[in-house]
């Protein structure tokens, strides 16, 4: 495949591919948010932080590492973790090695909420994305994403 110069004007196909990707992603996230709200759950960024904590080796991460890992809004992670703590979903503690660092650790209550939210999240993604494609198409899509990540974005994606 021939690469285009980074200064070349975008073609109509390139423009529509980019706009389509961004709009599709935003539409899907908006739908997840809407369904979480209908089910009485907090916003998707709560799920995002709880997922990263639960996925961590010991259920805890430094706050700055959470900010690097979450897939949604990376701003105000500290404030979000404070809200999660006030709801009993996480606990915070000082880093024993570096007094400036703060760790967040998911609680059992946080794990329970994340699992409940997942039922809604998974259903929306399955009905609005996954069911639209067969296994071969999903593998192709995954390959496209891996190519984007391999282009240097993998550290932030």
List the defining traits of the structure above.
157 residues; mainly alpha; Arc Repressor Mutant, subunit A; three-stranded antiparallel beta sheet; 6 helices; 3 strands; 8% strand
What does the model show?
- This protein has 157 residues and is mainly alpha-helical.
- Helix content is 61%, strand content 8%.
- It is built from 6 helices and 3 strands; from the N terminus they run H-H-E-H-H-E-E-H-H.
- It has helices at residues 12-38, 44-55, 63-69, 77-86, 108-128, 135-153; strands at residues 60-62, 90-94, 102-106.
- It has a 3-stranded antiparallel β-sheet.
- It is globular, with a radius of gyration of 19 Å.
- The mean pLDDT is 89.
Low-confidence stretches: none
Q: How many structural domains does the protein architecture include?
A: 1
- CATH fold assignment: Arc Repressor Mutant, subunit A
Q: How does the overall form come out from the CA principal axes?
A: globular
pLDDT averaged over residues: 89
- CATH superfamily descriptor: Winged helix-like DNA-binding domain superfamily/Winged helix DNA-binding domain
């Amino acid at each position: 495949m021939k690469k285009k110069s980074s200064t070349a004007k975008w073609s109509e196909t390139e423009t529509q591919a980019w706009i389509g990707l961004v709009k599709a992603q935003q539409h899907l996230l908006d739908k997840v948010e809407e369904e979480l709200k209908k089910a009485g759950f907090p916003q998707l960024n709560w799920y995002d932080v709880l997922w990263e904590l639960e996925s961590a080796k010991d259920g805890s991460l430094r706050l700055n590492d959470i900010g690097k890992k979450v897939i949604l809004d990376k701003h105000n992670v500290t404030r979000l973790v404070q809200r999660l703590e006030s709801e009993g979903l996480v606990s915070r503690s000082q880093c024993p090695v570096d007094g400036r660092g703060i760790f967040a650790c998911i609680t059992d209550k946080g794990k329970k909420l994340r699992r409940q939210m997942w039922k809604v999240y998974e259903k929306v993604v399955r009905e609005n994305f996954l069911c639209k494609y067969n296994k071969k198409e999903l593998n192709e899509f995954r390959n496209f994403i891996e190519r984007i990540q391999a282009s240097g974005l993998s550290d932030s994606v």
